[in-house]
């Protein structure tokens, strides 16, 4: 009896250890590419700084570590990570379905508009009702805005790349119209909406920091989307449509329906990000409510290889870079647009490394 | 408005439409080349920005518009070389690389502009309308057609030249075959990748020229994001034009008309619609265009696909 147990134990533990080892080594291998990509992008950023008479090492010392000063600065990074994780995770779903939604920026704006409307026009609700209602409004508006592009694609074969970009411009112009016109706070000189009622605000995590529960929502949703994509039959269908729409059609999958679902999910998360910007950060609608989170989200998703779980990490990384670039602008007058260059370089390096990995794999 | 005023309005409108269509004409004709060879370059917006900036910086330094235009073309092609390397040699996804180049174009131009130029606030001398004897003095017609600068007139030349190259030369024939049936080209002993590189170079060179027009022939300043979506609108123009250079010329003119209408109606005090509605007009019309011109019947069959040699 004793011997049998011993035997079982000997068999089980090595197996479990092997499985763990395999999972970890796979994770390590799949992490090599994005890490290398980020390093290359940072090196490029350093070269750019150095060539233009700035201090090149600032890219690491200030952009990466400069914003980790105290709890407050970390909270600010997480605040920036919230929309990036939401948008990045949502875009993972769209990109896996081969839907090129470049319109997260516009979907964010529309979400912010809807959140402002619900947060300013209703009064007297409990925070337990009003705050979630604002989030829901943002998500629905974002999904609807993305749904326009989805519908035009499945009904008229209009390229979603072009339509989502055009809808970005239209959403931003619409916001500008609303805050200078119908939604303008009459008492303010600057174009801005009225303030959201307090019950509509997204609750903060710690009362004296701006960080709100949106970051928790973002992480939970990213995990949920990962499970959705990997474990649900709908998620499977989305991936099949993305890989080969013809095969999906032969297998009896409704391609149009899956396309609509994928683009609406990504739009909903971008809209939710917009709702959080208004209800959690500014509490008013402004013309430039987003500094380009919608476009940055594309880089977040691509760095994460379209895996929503990894989007949590890449979203955090891009938020760090964005915070760091703000510090860099203040301390060394380096134009903050440096982040755009690094974002672009990250994407290019990711595709290059992925190709080299494929080549190595084939060679091996 | 009485009839005279309306005619004057119309003449100014047509003149402005052609001018505002010029960057779109260059970029979309360039993109026709690139897409005919099977390469979809959504990085046009970033490429145009690079062209606009290189053109501005060169004219700023040398005072020469011609050198500025050449620098715009060169900057665009340099950017195109990166795109071509990643999409044709490495065979990475064209949309992903295009998106990256848009970020890079926006970021690099804004970075250098803020570092060196923004504080100067100085503009440059831009291309002036040329006076054609008799024609420019015609009532209405002169205003509408004959008071443009040379860059605007050159759009006609580019459209004709592009058509001749694409349909009347062996290079053009092979280039179109590369987009439809690359394997046939490969079997016939021609280098598919080389043709695609050439097509992308033509495309990005023209996009760079279109961008340079914005700073050298239209506004006298570089502004961050000065292209404001023209690179993306050019993509829609190509679809509407059914991948034909002459078509791209006329569809761009139509979009120029939307831009011109927007600007001129904003100036009219009697118009009651909010100016943002007019601002959104080109973007709305782009969507309408894609819906009206349905289907992809005329699209090159291998558009967006890397070619794998077997």
Structural class of chain A: mainly alpha
The tally of strands of chain B reads: 0
Low-confidence stretches of chain A: none
**Looking at CATH, which topology of chain A would you report?**
ABC transporter involved in vitamin B12 uptake, BtuC
* Average pLDDT metric of chain B: 90
State the end-to-end distance of chain A: 46 Å
Number of domains of chain B: 1
- Could you say which overall geometry of chain B the principal axes of the C-alpha atoms support? globular
Oligomer, anyone?
A: heterodimer
Helix percent of chain A reads over 70%
Largest sheet of chain B: none
State mean pLDDT of chain A (0 to 100 scale).
Answer: 90
Secondary-structure blueprint of this entry?
The complex is a heterodimer of chains A (364) and B (310).
Chain A: H1 2-51, H2 58-64, H3 71-96, H4 104-121, H5 127-156, H6 160-180, H7 214-231, H8 233-243, H9 245-250, H10 255-282, H11 293-303, H12 308-332, H13 338-363
Helix pairs in contact in A: 1-13, 2-12, 3-7, 3-10, 3-11, 3-12, 4-5, 4-6, 4-10, 4-11, 5-6, 5-10, 7-8, 7-12, 8-10, 11-12, 11-13
Chain B: H1 3-36, H2 44-62, H3 65-89, H4 94-117, H5 141-145, H6 150-168, H7 170-180, H8 182-187, H9 192-218, H10 230-240, H11 245-267, H12 275-279, H13 281-292
Helix pairs in contact in B: 1-6, 1-9, 1-10, 1-11, 2-3, 2-4, 2-9, 2-10, 3-4, 3-9, 6-7, 6-11, 7-9, 10-11, 10-13, 11-13
Short description:
The complex is a heterodimer of chains A (about 375) and B (about 300). Chain A has 13 helices and no strands.
Descriptive terms for the model:
heterodimer; A: 364 residues; mainly alpha; ABC transporter involved in vitamin B12 uptake, BtuC; 13 helices; B: 310 residues; 71% helix; globular
């Amino acid at each position: 009896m004793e011997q049998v147990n011993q035997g079982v134990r000997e068999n089980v533990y090595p197996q479990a250890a092997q499985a763990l080892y395999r999972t970890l080594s796979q994770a390590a291998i799949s992490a090599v590419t994005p890490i290398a990509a980020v390093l290359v992008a940072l090196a490029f950023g350093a070269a750019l700084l150095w060539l233009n008479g700035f201090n090149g090492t600032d890219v690491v010392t200030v952009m990466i570590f400069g914003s980790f000063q105290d709890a407050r600065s970390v909270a600010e990074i997480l605040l920036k990570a919230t929309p990036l994780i939401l948008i990045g995770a949502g875009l993972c779903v769209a990109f896996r379905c081969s839907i090129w939604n470049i319109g997260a920026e516009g979907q964010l704006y529309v979400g912010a508009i809807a959140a402002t409307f619900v947060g300013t026009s209703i009064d007297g609700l409990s925070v337990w009702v009003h705050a979630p209602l604002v989030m829901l409004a943002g998500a629905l508006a974002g999904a609807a805005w993305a749904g326009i592009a989805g519908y035009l694609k499945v009904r008229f074969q209009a390229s979603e790349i072009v339509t989502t970009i055009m809808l970005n411009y239209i959403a931003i112009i619409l916001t500008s119209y609303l805050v200078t016109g119908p939604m303008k706070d009459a008492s303010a000189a600057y174009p801005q909406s009225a303030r959201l009622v307090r019950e509509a605000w997204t609750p903060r995590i710690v009362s004296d920091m701006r960080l709100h529960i949106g970051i928790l929502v973002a992480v939970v949703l990213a995990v949920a989307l990962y499970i959705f994509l990997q474990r649900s039959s709908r998620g499977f269908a989305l991936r099949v449509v993305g890989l080969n729409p013809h095969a999906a059609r032969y297998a009896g999958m409704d391609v149009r329906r899956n396309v609509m679902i994928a683009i609406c999910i990504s739009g909903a998360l971008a809209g939710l990000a917009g709702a959080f910007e208004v209800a959690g950060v500014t509490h008013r609608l402004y013309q430039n409510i987003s500094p380009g989170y919608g476009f940055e989200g594309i880089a977040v998703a691509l760095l994460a290889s379209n895996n929503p779980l990894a989007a949590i990490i890449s979203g955090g990384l891009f938020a760090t870079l964005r915070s760091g670039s703000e510090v860099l602008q203040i301390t060394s007058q380096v134009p903050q647009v440096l982040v755009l260059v690094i974002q672009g370089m990250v994407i290019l390096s990711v595709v290059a490394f992925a190709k080299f990995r494929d080549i190595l794999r084939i060679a091996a | 408005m009485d009839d005279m005023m309306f005619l004057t309005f119309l003449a100014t409108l047509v003149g402005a439409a052609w001018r505002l269509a010029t960057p779109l004409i260059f970029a979309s004709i360039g993109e026709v080349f690139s897409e005919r060879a099977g390469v979809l370059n959504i990085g046009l917006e970033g490429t145009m920005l690079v062209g606009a900036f290189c053109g501005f910086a060169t004219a700023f330094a040398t005072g020469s518009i011609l050198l500025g235009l050449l620098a715009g073309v060169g900057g665009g092609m340099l950017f195109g070389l990166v795109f071509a390397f990643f999409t044709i040699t490495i065979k990475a996804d064209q949309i992903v690389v295009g998106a990256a180049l848009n970020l890079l174009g926006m970021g690099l131009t804004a970075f250098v502009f803020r570092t060196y130029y923004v504080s100067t606030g100085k503009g440059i001398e831009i291309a002036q309308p040329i006076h054609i004897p008799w024609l420019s003095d015609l009532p209405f017609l002169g205003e509408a057609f004959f008071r443009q600068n040379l860059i605007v007139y050159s759009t006609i030349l580019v459209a004709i030249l592009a058509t001749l190259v694409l349909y009347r030369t062996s290079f053009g024939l092979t280039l179109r075959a590369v987009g439809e049936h690359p394997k046939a080209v490969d079997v016939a002993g021609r280098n598919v990748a080389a043709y695609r590189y050439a097509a992308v170079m033509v495309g990005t060179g023209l996009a760079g020229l279109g961008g340079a027009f914005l700073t050298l022939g239209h506004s006298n300043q570089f502004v961050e994001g000065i292209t404001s979506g023209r690179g993306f609108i050019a993509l829609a123009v190509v679809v509407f034009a059914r991948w034909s250079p002459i078509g791209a010329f006329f569809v761009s003119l139509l979009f120029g008309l939307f831009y011109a209408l927007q600007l001129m109606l904003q100036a009219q005090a009697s118009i009651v619609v909010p100016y943002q509605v007019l601002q959104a007009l080109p973007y709305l019309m782009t969507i309408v265009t894609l819906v009206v011109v349905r289907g992809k019947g005329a699209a090159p069959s291998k558009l967006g696909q890397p070619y794998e040699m077997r």
